[in-house]
Amino acid sequence: MWEGKREHPRLILHNFITPEECKELEFIHKSCSTVGYRPNVFSTTLSHLIATNSPHLLIPFVSIRERLKEKMEETFGCEYELFIEFTGLISWCRGASIGWHSDDNRQYLKQRDFSAVCYLNSYGKDFKGGLFRFQSGEPATIPPSAGDVIMYTADDRNIHSVDEVTDGERLTLAMWFTRDSSHDEDSNLISRLSQCASPEFPLPLPASANMYWFCPHQHANLNTGFDICVARLHLLGFDVHSLPEEDRSLDASEQLMGLVQLAKGGELLARKFTNVLHALQVVQFCHWKASELKTSKVGSDAVEEVKAMSRPQLETINALNAVFLPDEGLVTTTFGYLCSNGEEKDSLNLTDASSAIASWEEYTCKLLKELLSSLPQWETYQTLHKVESG
Ligand SMILES: O=C(O)CCC(=O)C(=O)O
Ligand SMILES: [Fe+2]
């Protein structure tokens, strides 16, 4: 069944994830990611999605997880034995790498039996460096390609590494599988969903006031970094304007948790977003769906007003950037792809972002409806699975 020998139980699958699924997961990651578990790594776990009041974003993972688990059990001959231990979108930015290791190499990781790494973007096209390598056995080197999956045992028969990423953002869906039901991710997620899932429209909520990422390898007293949301918006050419709060005593980090507006090229969009995460989700949605949204141009009455910025508004933006984005260059070197000449910056304007709001709301409602109708069955069977509607 496996391509390699028995000493190195592993399987490479090509195009297991569709291009549309890759794009949707990329949208989720770019609108929700937080600081990851290694230097220059950013992650979006399923529990983080629940914590940021975006539980509906679990839905796009459901059928992918199900298919991967089935394939894993079939490949390694352990039908109905496995539980998913961890699911996360992980991006490896410039400077990120990992040396030789097996995935169960810590006492607290011993429950891990199998690993699956799904590539959501491609070596050469989206990033440089970042080759996956097995220390022994074939294949030895794997250049990530969108849609491909590597499955392998988590023990020392599959010691592997990832070369340093030298440009761009390398995106994966990483999953671990276990035979130990006490490490079942699903039952944990379901109990959290049962506590929080309300039929109300979910407006994203930053999980904590601090989404600030510190750049490693800097001299300790020269610490620089950025707020992840502000940085991601900046990469698409948008600035954030916060609205004056009644309570002026709020410290800087709180300003992104309240009402914000989007600005670009000296103009400001009248529409107010609940917080920076809300603005980011809409903008990333707009980026994901850009070609569709442009062809189906919504009536101009739906387009919100774009006005020239006043001087105090410009000053507010500059003050926010000084705190949350002190080093603009760091954003491009971390999240950008230098080969692409920063064309992403000019791809969207304020009117595009404004007309994407309705479609983003529609998308969110559709997923929420599916979540709410699936949850009773998930609770009964204690697994996240595709529930046929109607
Ligand atoms: O991203 C990859 O290709 C593998 C990552 C990895 O080895 C790990 O996170 O343990
Ligand atoms: Fe690994």
From TrEMBL:
Its cofactor is Fe cation; L-ascorbate. It comes from Brassica cretica. It holds the Pfam family 2OG-FeII_Oxy_3. Residues 71-179 form the Fe2OG dioxygenase domain. InterPro entries: Oxoglu/Fe-dep_dioxygenase_dom, P3H, Pro_4_hyd_alph, Pro_4_hyd_alph_FE2OG_OXY. SMART domains: P4Hc. It comes from the Eukaryota. Keywords: Dioxygenase, Iron, Metal-binding, Oxidoreductase, Repeat. This is procollagen-proline 3-dioxygenase. Its EC number is 1.14.11.7.
